[in-house]
From TrEMBL:
InterPro entries reported in the protein's UniProt record: P-loop_NTPase (IPR027417), PhnN (IPR012699)
List of residues binding ATP: 7-14
Protein name, entry field: Ribose 1,5-bisphosphate phosphokinase PhnN
Role, per record: Catalyzes the phosphorylation of ribose 1,5-bisphosphate to 5-phospho-D-ribosyl alpha-1-diphosphate (PRPP).
């Protein structure tokens, strides 16, 4: 089963996934997939496998990715070695969910927060001005119809959000 983690910018996906990864480290039913991204490793954000565009293209051509997509000027890939006996948990773009659902048993874990919380978190990052934050929040895209979705509200302390994600993942009954 592939568990696609999605949600708006500022929802805390990377933070909650890091906490869930630590909480479920000894549970063989779960695998947290490390994405390949054409972004330098030192750029921050999630732990990823950094590739340049040529390396990404070569790996894609060799069948190294189960799924891949382009967003925000970067290429993203999920490794092809997904194991059906595990819940493979990976951040995915909403734009690749229909393809993922056609190719794999798919569950979607949508992490979200109220708009005012998202706005405050994005502003705290200091990467965008208020107008850019408002524009980012306004362009949130819905999910394709027919997907099996579990929503986790991340509107409190990190520990609470991690506990909600872990409970949601365990509720999927993988393996």
């Amino acid at each position: 089963m592939l568990v696609a983690v999605v949600g708006p910018s500022g929802a805390g996906k990377d933070t909650l996934m890091a906490g869930a990864r630590a909480a479920l480290a000894d549970d063989p039913r779960f695998r947290f997939v490390r994405r390949a991204i054409t972004r330098p490793a030192e750029a921050g954000g999630e732990d990823h496998r950094a590739l340049d565009r040529a390396g990404f293209a070569a790996e894609r051509a060799a069948g190294g990715f189960a799924l891949w997509w382009e967003a925000h000027g970067l290429l993203y890939g999920i490794p092809a070695d997904l194991d059906a006996r595990q819940a493979s948990i990976a951040n995915l773009s909403r734009g690749v969910l229909a393809e993922a659902a056609a190719r794999f048993p798919l569950r979607v874990l949508e992490i979200t927060a109220p708009p005012e919380v998202l706005a405050a978190r994005l502003a705290a990052r200091g990467r965008e001005d208020a107008a850019d934050v408002a524009a980012r929040l306004a362009r949130q895209v819905g999910l394709p119809p027919g997907l099996r979705v579990v929503r986790v509200l991340n509107d409190g302390p990190v520990e609470q959000g991690v506990a909600r994600v872990v409970a949601a993942l365990r509720g999927l009954n993988p393996g």
